[in-house]
Amino acid sequence: MNPPASSTPDDNDATIIRPIGPAPAGPVPALPAALDDAATVIAPPPGAGPAGPPPAARPDRHEGGNALPVGSRQAEFEITRVLGEGGFGIVYLARDHLLERMVALKEYMPAALALRGEHSQVRVRSERHRDTFEAGLKSFINEARLLAQFDHPSLVKVYRFWEANGTAFMVMPFIEGKTLKDTLREMGGPPGEDWLMAMLAPLTEALLVLHGEHCYHRDIAPDNIILLRGSGMPLLLDFGAARRVIGDMTQALTVILKPGYAPIEQYAEVPSLKQGPWTDVYALAAVIYCAITGRTPPPSVGRIVKDDYVPLAQLAQGRYSERLVQAVDRALQVMPEQRIASMEAFREALGLGGVDAPRPSQMATLIQAPAPAPTPAAAAAPAPARGRGALLAGLGLAGVAAAGVAAYLLTRPPAPAEGTATAAVPAATAPAPIAAPAPAPATPPLAAAPAPADLHAQFLDLVAHHSPGFDVQAQAERTELRIDRDELRFSVTPSRDGYLYVLMAGPDGSLTQIYPNDKARNNRVSARQAVKLPQSSWPLKASEPAGLEDFLVLVTAEPRSFAPWALEKDPAYGFLTLPARGPATGTPAGAPSWLLGQPDCGRPACAAEFGAAVFSLEVVR
Question: Which CATH architecture has domain 178-228+260-350?
Answer without folding.
Answer: Orthogonal Bundle (1.10)
